[in-house]
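<tokenise_the_fold>
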Amino acid sequence: MNIHPVLERIFELSGEKFAWFRNGVELEIIDGLRNKDRLTEKQYIAVYPHLEIQRGDMLKSLETGTEYWIYLYDFEIAEGEKFQGQAFHVSAEEWDIIRQQIEEEISTESRPSLEDYIGYLQALTRIQAPEAGQEFDILFSILEKTLGQTGIEWGILKDFVSLFDANPWLEEAVSNIIMKWLKK
């Protein structure tokens, strides 16, 4: 760990101690200095650049007891080297809002929609049965409507038994999608 002597001196003269937490567990006590970015005016805590602080970590001032929730971790570069880590922070209330937004983005990004599944079936049909007729489109429309509502009617696909029998790959694909959708 190569620490710039100027940063070390700044921490000695003006720094304070912070307890560093991740997922509610204290990792260690670190040196830091509350500061503000000159360009953006955003508040951050300057730390040694070797620390692997992450979004969602919390730094708690041992002097004041104030909690600083980290939403961004960056570095200040001086003379081509990492001079200091910059732990940009918000209050606990602001972090709760940011965390909720992040979780919502992740949950919507990671789950395919019903339209995605139907699109998959349509693409698979173009590959497996390029001569496919209107029967497939009707089936996919019924699937979309059925899976998009509550209370699935027993035997809703009985009119398509011959289509499934003639195309075993289709039954397997539809079954997989229904199971994935129902297991969400």
Summary: Strands lie at 16-22, 25-36, 43-47, 58-61, 67-78, 81-90.
